[in-house]
Amino acid sequence: MKKRTGSILAGLLAGGAILVALRRGSLAELLDSTGPGLRLNNPGLIEIDGSPELVGEVVPSTHSRYRQFVNASAGIHALVRHLQAIIAQSSDTTLTRVISAWAVRRRSDPANYVEAVSKLSGIAPDQDVSSRLRALVLGVIAQELGSVPYRDIEISQGINMARVPAWGIQ
Q1: Mean pLDDT of 141-156
Q2: Closest CA to 123 of 83, 152, 78
């Protein structure tokens, strides 16, 4: 990457209005540096796979591989629905089983993914995740994006959109 000269954003207060000047190309560089999960409001990096449109999905996506959502809550909702579908597939609702199924969809190494999400979520690999959905979602987001950049309200809205109170959100 070439050396940057000057600032990316310069705010000037003039007559009550803020003028923002962008150096040529800086906006594209800034967006590229955030990764598709944030740009597309898709914290689970859910891929386009030909399945039906999801709630809050932007069609067509501006990305060729990943789905795009109207806001973070819609993307979190989609992640929750995917995790719920995996949990519902079996009576084995341990972190290892659920994350292994998720990791296969993500083309990730299941053992490493389970270990990472366990550390990030505080859920032991052999622990039942059905009553720890919020922690599971936060662990997956942190693993996919490197952190959890969302406000609590966005996370709560995404989880609540999936209508999961019977699972005991924690």
Answers
A1: 95
A2: 83
Claim: this prediction has a pTM higher than 0.85: no
pLDDT band at 103; cut points 50, 70, 90? confident
Give the DSSP per-residue string, the chain. -PPP-S-SEEEEEETTEEEEEE-TTHHHHHHHHH-HHHHTT-TT-PBP-SPPPPTTEESS-SSSSB-EESSHHHHHHHHHHHHHHHHHT-S--BHHHHHHHHHHHHT--HHHHHHHHHHHHT--TTSB-TT-HHHHHHHHHHHHHSS--S-HHHHHHHHHHT--GGG---
Name the residue ranges covered by the structural domains of the chain: 1-34, 36-167
Give the burial class of 99: count Cβ atoms within 10 A of its Cβ; 0-12 exposed, 13-18 middle, 19 or more buried. buried
Query: Do residues 40 and 69 touch, judged by C-beta distance below 8 A?
Result: yes
Chain position carrying tokens 């689970």: 44
